[in-house]
Amino acid sequence: MQPDKSPKNCPFCKIREGKLPASLLHEDELVLVIVDLSPINEGHLLIIPKIHASGMADVDPDTLAHMMRLAQRMNAALRKSSYKCEGVNLFLADGEAAGQEVFHCHLHVYPRFKGDGFGFRSVKGKHFVQAERARMDAVAQELQGLL
Ligand SMILES: [Zn+2]
User: What is the pLDDT of residue 1?
Assistant: First the structure.
């Protein structure tokens, strides 16, 4: 079944419209910052553009830049907070294969600490294996042509 990418049933649009509750810590003309309903660790935040766009490609670049500026501020706030925070991850899942579950682009900002049990899974011998320079050059060349 195809995921529902319309704003009609979008939980983040409903939060923006006040139709669903949220713990809001920042709002401006471009974005909302709320506390994640199902946190990886306490202090997990979501930075959400106000305008519905399912994927990153559809978000205005100035809004994306603003999201990153806010992520820096949220990172600093988390590090000063009472929540356990030895490091911070930023995570933006763009597409179902990348782990996107709510199809309204959003940026996760969440505190991390040693032993929190969260992490990406990798397969030894498949991931993080040093690539050959020729392949790396081919990747750079192909993508340069697509910018
Ligand atoms: Zn939405």
Answer: 65
